[in-house]
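pasting MOSC domain-containing protein for the record, 214 residues
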Amino acid sequence: MSARLLALCTGAPSPLPDGKLSAIDKQERAGPIRIGRLGLDGDAQVDRKHHGGEHMAVHHYPADHYGYWRTELPAVARLGAPGAFGENLHVSGLTESDVLIGDRFRVGSALLEVSMGRQPCSTLARHFEQTDMVKRIVANGRCGWYYRVLEEGEAEAGDIFERVESGAPEWTVERAFALLFEPKRVPDRAEIEEFISLPALGPVWRKKAEAKIA
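structre below
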């Protein structure tokens, strides 16, 4: 499967509407951008405890979801351009139901591996000035996901986003998100243990799954 990279986005710390600093508001960058082991050149994370690092180096949010959000939140002008969800990669042709934990994608000269989905947090609610933003994402599963960088390289808008190796069979980002966050979903122990055993699963989501067993 292949998709298309529409934009690469980076951000610098700036105040949210409530005054707290965040780098969630990413802006589209022109030209080739280097993708290193810890993310895109020029990108920042303010809360390094919950964002960034080897297993959350690059954030992908589907361009395919933007039409939905513009309908749901017509007053949010920021949805008119890439980077509104804090994503580094604004890509068409892939959503959470298409992507497996452990999938490997080639974009430009970089090789990326899906580690886990993105957990919605209060920063998104403050960024969009929507108090129910986390609840909305939990309900609709439009979460986005993270990559670790297996091979550093460069990419630019217009590059093909190509899956070169498939990850864990049946473990889509959509299913993983539902297992961890869907309120009415009651996974059995065997399903949780299978999820925990996925070699490519990022440590943050592995710990959340382990807590369900505990």
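The chain has a mean pLDDT of 94.
The chain has one domain: 2-211.
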